[in-house]
Write a structure and sequence with these properties.
By secondary structure, the chain is α/β, with parallel strands linked by helices. The chain folds into two domains: about 190 residues, Rossmann fold (3-Layer(aba) Sandwich), CATH 3.40.50.2000; about 170 residues, Glycogen Phosphorylase B (Rossmann fold, 3-Layer(aba) Sandwich), CATH 3.40.50.2000. It contains 15 helices and twelve strands. Strand 10, helix 11 and strand 11 form a beta-alpha-beta unit.
Amino acid sequence: MLLRFLAHADRNVHAANILSLLTPGPLAQDARVLGIKVSTLGMNPGRLFPLSPMALRSSMTTERHHLVHGWMYHGNLAASIASAASRKKTPVIWSIHHSLHDLSNEKPMTARLIKILARISRSAEAISYCSNVAARQHELLGFCSERSVVIPNGVDCKEFAPDANAKLALARLIGAPDNRLLIGNFARFHPMKDQVRLVDAIADLTLRGHDVQALFVGAGHDNGVLRGRSRELNIEDRVTILPERKDIARIAPGLDLFVMTSSWGESFSLAAAEAMACGVPAVVTDVGDCAWVVGDGSFVARPGGTLSISAAIERLLALTPDERRAVGMRARARIEANFGIADYVNKHHALYAQALEKRASNAKSSAAASISTRLAGEF
């Protein structure tokens, strides 16, 4: 989402550099292609404490920064430390892309970090959440509600668009019969994503006589969990797993429907929104703002409920192809009207302008107060 934001932002207004706490991965090259400088602190996962104020200050002083935008929890803390360590006290904006149904679901270090951020949240100029539910959940944990701003994720509806030829191409790519119903899930493997539920739902739907194929695309699936589960259920031929790909905009329009099965943590399912922009109906679990994104309660399932997920999928499969296409086009219209990338960029630019204007106003007030104090001393 960060790269998509920067790709569409007006960099003549806000030029950007990226500081990665960890050693950069494949996305760094995508950023460089956009002409964005990427530097790193070279930290190791799981060993992000302590964040060195001197290292952060050094990274800040190599470039002239007017504003620091933290991205996710560790980035938010790093942004605040960097600002505090700098002489200018650069204004800081936090971004939170995670919902918090239960803090015990988080890793101990992440839970500790969230509590630290809650205590210092008033120091940020703004806290940008990508979902209303996430904002409320964090505020209940002590995050400053006065700093809250909700900016839902945005989709480039020119890049993600319907393609009448995509279904056949996708079926050929994964070796599925042309007339089989293709159900996709695009996400890295992670316990919060609960993708095993979709494998179980596919087994249930197959037993009910539906000719369906699940397609999982994302990093981490080489751990064999989904493959092992499909083997246990004797539906290995109905589950296709592909590694992470950069051509999702080409693959997504070939789906008959998209299914997001997250049990927790999901704030705004960007993958579901992108599929919807491609004219593909989406089933989501009721986590974060995902039900709001879909906008149709008929296709919202209970988190952690295999039968609920299966039933929501079956309601879509019961429709005729023309009816499903109509649902898909309504889904695309919803994304275009409410979650376009231009709106996402414009809201961030407005947030930047507001933060910079507030800091400039405070600086003028401080300067005026200082002059007043000196004059009073002279008399």
